[in-house]
Amino acid sequence: MSKTIEASIVVVDDEPSIRDLLVASLHFAGFEVNTAASGSEAIEVIEKVHPDLIVLDVMLPDIDGFTVTRRIRQEGIDAPVLFLTARDDTQDKVMGLTVGGDDYVTKPFSLEEVVARIRAILRRTSHQEVEDPIIRVGDLEINEDSHDVTRAGVQVDLSPTEYKLLRYLMDNEGRVLSKTQILDHVWQYDWGGDAAIVESYISYLRKKVDGVMVEDEKGNKHKVTPLIETKRGIGYMIRAPKAPSKKDA
Hints:
single chain; 249 residues; alpha/beta; 4-stranded antiparallel beta sheet
């Protein structure tokens, strides 16, 4: 039985060892993969195959990844781009998002992280094509059309920034997001201070989203099961609670 292709991806990197590792890992994960070793070759391949996503190294021997992205955007190719950068440099990240990139991974990276990022980007971008505007994690729902948020059927009022943060967490359900990633994607570099702002807004979200009170069948009120988790020293994530096992029943 042939394996179902999850999505079509173009991998662009001038280092054969990195390129080969990415191809093997992505093939194993169920993706169809085409490759390029330079910026000019990348543009040719992308124009030919029209991939669902592009994994693009920033530092290429002829034209850099930012220029490649600008050119394909000018040609109307809107496939999401995951940048590979050798430097954990804010300037690179700003430039990447400015030219139309969707996310970045800093070298050296784990193959598992790249696959997770790709799937998160595909989930985010696929929402635009799906008629159902509702994003769900457990009993938490966001309506992308009206920006309404409900938890266990109870309306939750959020500020615009709180909404953006919750949406980013839900788009990446089950994945730990660092403070830097959250700052980059929610505040988009407009915040000039330190990462403490992330802790504050996570706290606000917890009080509003995980602090909802509901009634059980006997009429007793209790808080909903928390969805937002802290991974100490790493970051934050949101995920639906596990279903109780038979032992717990």
